[in-house]
Every structure is written in C-alpha cells, then in structure tokens.
Amino acid sequence: MPLSFAQQRLWFLSQMEGISEAYHIPVGLRLMGTLDPEALQRALNQIVVRHESLRTRFVVVGGAPVQQIDPAKPFDLTIHDLSEASDAESELQQIAREEARGSFSLSSGPLIRGRLIRLAPTEHVLLVTMHHIVSDGWSIGVLVKDFSRLYSLYRAGEVDSEPVSAIQYVDYAVWQHRWLGGDRREAQGAYWETALSGAPALLELPIDYPRPAQQRYEGRQVRLSFDATLTGELKALSQRHGTTLFMTVLAAWATVLSRLSGQQDVVIGTPVANRTQRETEELIGFFVNMLSLRVDFTGQPTVSELLRRVRETAIGAQAHQELPFEQVVERIKPSRSQAHSPIFQVMFAWQNNEVSDLELPGLHLSGLESESSVAKFDLTLNLSETDDEIEGILEYSTALFKSETVERYGRYLVRLLEAMTRGEDERVSQLPMLPAEEREQLLVGWNATEVAYPLESTVHGLFEAQVEGSPESTALVYEEERVSYGELNRR
C-alpha cells in the first residue's frame, strides 16, 4: 500500500543519520492508585489491534517504500521498579529521556513501545513512544482516550465490544493520492504558489553560534506564560478585531521575529490536524499538515492593520490546508539547503492535545511533565490556554542559540503583547519590546564607560605609567599590524 505524502517525506528523512529522535512522539502518564497490571497490558494490546498504523512497517518494493501491515502481537512493555531508589524521580526522568531517544527500525517495527515504572505500590508511570511516521500530536489524545476506556473495561472484567473502525490510516493514504489527481490539487497549488512567491528562503535571526552546514536536531526548551490579566486583554483585543487568540499571538510573534531579523517579510510554519473527514478523528496516524503563514510588514502597519493582514492570511491558509506541505515545497521549489528546513525555520503551534487528568477505576491519571531534547526547527513556540492563562514553551536549536537568548526572546514577546493591547493604532515597529530592566541595561548600564583619572596627572604621564605597568599589551592595531605600548614608547 502507498505511503501518504507526509510519510514519504519522513521516510526519506529517516534515511539520513541523526534525525530519528526528532521524529519520536513520547507520551508519559502518571498513574496514582491501585494499578491492575493485567488490565493495563490488555488495554495496550487492544490499542494495537484497533489501530493498523501501530502494526505498520515500511519496506522497499521495486525501489520505493510501501506500507506493510502486520498481524497484532502483544504490546512489548518493559518493567522498571524504582520503589527502592534513593532518588526515584531523577531516575524516572533519566529513563524517560532514554525511552524517548531510543531508535526505531521502520522496516522491522514495531513503531510503538512502552515502559512501566513502579515508583511506589500506589504510584506508577507509563511511558509510550510512537514514531511520527505512524502518529501525530492529535493521536496522543486518541491513545489516552482509548487506553482509559479499555483499561476501565478490563478492570471491571468486561470485554471490548466496540467495533474496530472500518477506515484505517492506509485508506487515507490511498484517498490522498487519488484526491491529488483531481482539479483541487491544482487550485490549492495555485493558491500556495501565489501566497509564497518571492518569500525569503531563510529568516536570518541573530544567532549565538554559526549555523552548521547540515541541520542538527538537538534542542532544549524555556518556559513562558501570559498571566490572567494579559490573557484577558488579549481575548478582548481579539474580539474587537475578529481574530482568534492564535492569530493575535501570531501577529506579535511575527513582529518579534521581524524586528530581530530586520526583515519585513516573515514566514512562520504552523501545524493543522488535517482530519477533515470525521472518520479520521478517532484514528492514530500521521495526518498533521504544515501550513506556511506569510506575514507582510511593509508600509509600517499599525496593530489593527497587522491583525487584519494576519487574519486574512490565516483564513486563506486554512481554506487550502489539504495540499500536503511536501507538495507545496515541490510546487514552490524554494532554494534548498541542508542547513535549514525549506520555506520556514520558525514554528508556532497552539496545542490542544495535552493530557487532561482522568479518573479511572482505582486510578487517577495525569500527564507526566518531561523536557524534550530535540528541535526540528530553529525556534518553535508552543502555547496552550490553561484555565485563564496562556502557558507554553519556546523550543530552540542548541546548535544556534544559548538559553539566555531564547529566554530574552520570550520576554520580548510578552512585552510586545502588552503593548499591543494598549496601542491598537500604534505602528508595530514603534511598540516597546524591551522589558524596563533590559532597556535600562542597554541605555545606561552598558554605556557607563566613564573613567576617573587623577586631576594632577598629564596625558603623557598616564601613557608612561601604562608602558611601565604592561609594556607588552597592544596599544595600536592597523590592519594586520599590532604595536605594543613598549614599542610605541621606544618609537
């Protein structure tokens, strides 16, 4: 069976060394209460039965990769007992990192695995890792929902009587290839060709380290949050301009990137679930698509004008989201480089796949917080709304940025958003972006270069004192020539 276009791209990428970990999807569940190990194992086994994608391998036939679906096998669950460990939480985080980094074989499978960690008699952690080629962010929610339902059934001694979906991921892949043979492919392709014509190949942000010749995928994260007051003001601003919170924050994030890079043309990537057929909503699979959102800063737009532009761009992109990103790249034919991703290098994602707390028979289930060590792009802003606040992370490539640089970018975003809510008629290029303390440091602290010299000293006397104290120190530099204080004095 054919691969979807997204799978094809990921399969080809997987043939390169050092990128596999960047395309793993780890899930961590903390289970508090009395665990039924047999019900847990049976629930995981049945999830694999219900989702063909989790039984799929990718083999080469006639020089091209194809999907091969295997019969269901018991879920391979490794058990760790940390109940006697002196620092169980630290060991847990180490195991979680190792689990997320472990390699997969696309040709041998399976492309899902798990570990169960016992921290105490009534505290366990379940770690599940899937390869992105058979899963995506939305799939995390499907996995957790299925696990909760099935565990509850088996814990109660019941059986799973819900029919397995007749539609599976491979059906979507076949449909996608047929769909792209029609007129809609041309219409969507024409939209993206117009939208991205002449866009810059690279967003040239100031970076701390030279960009490697080949993109690396090591990364880290810094946290950021918008308090309830700012979140409320952003909601009010969005309502006045007919935008979503996503669009409003996108406008601010694009402004930060534009001002840091000095570019008036900024392209930011964003993921969309791409589950436009209802039957796909309950499937585990690689459906997500990437949209390229181009933000135009020419003409010195005001906040109001920028929000209008961003809204128009986002709505247009959503209306043409079905063309796979891989096909957009093929249509646009941007200049390619192994040093960075094509079309965009910065992402913005509004997450809605966080694991919510759930009550199961005898168990309280919650998500396990852990830090990712990968970065598929230069920068990725991940946000979600929790209660009355917006929280998230800035993921960054450690090959390009120091953590303090990215933390500063996060502060710029918060400060700019605050300014946007108070100055809708102001030009975004003139809005304050530096926090007060950083502005003070730039304008005053780093410019405090005055030196107090003794009033009774002469200039030549100060020079002779310098010669005596450090004669070998450099006094003058001209092109490739350097002259020390001692040599200058002898001349």
Automatic annotation (TrEMBL):
<dbReference type="Pfam" id="PF00668">
    <property type="entry name" value="Condensation"/>
</dbReference>
<dbReference type="InterPro" id="IPR023213">
    <property type="entry name" value="CAT-like_dom_sf"/>
</dbReference>
<dbReference type="InterPro" id="IPR042099">
    <property type="entry name" value="ANL_N_sf"/>
</dbReference>
<protein>
    <recommendedName>
        <fullName>Condensation domain-containing protein</fullName>
    </recommendedName>
</protein>
<dbReference type="GO" id="GO:0003824">
    <property type="term" value="F:catalytic activity"/>
</dbReference>
<dbReference type="InterPro" id="IPR001242">
    <property type="entry name" value="Condensation_dom"/>
</dbReference>
<feature type="domain" description="Condensation">
    <location>
        <begin position="2"/>
        <end position="443"/>
    </location>
</feature>
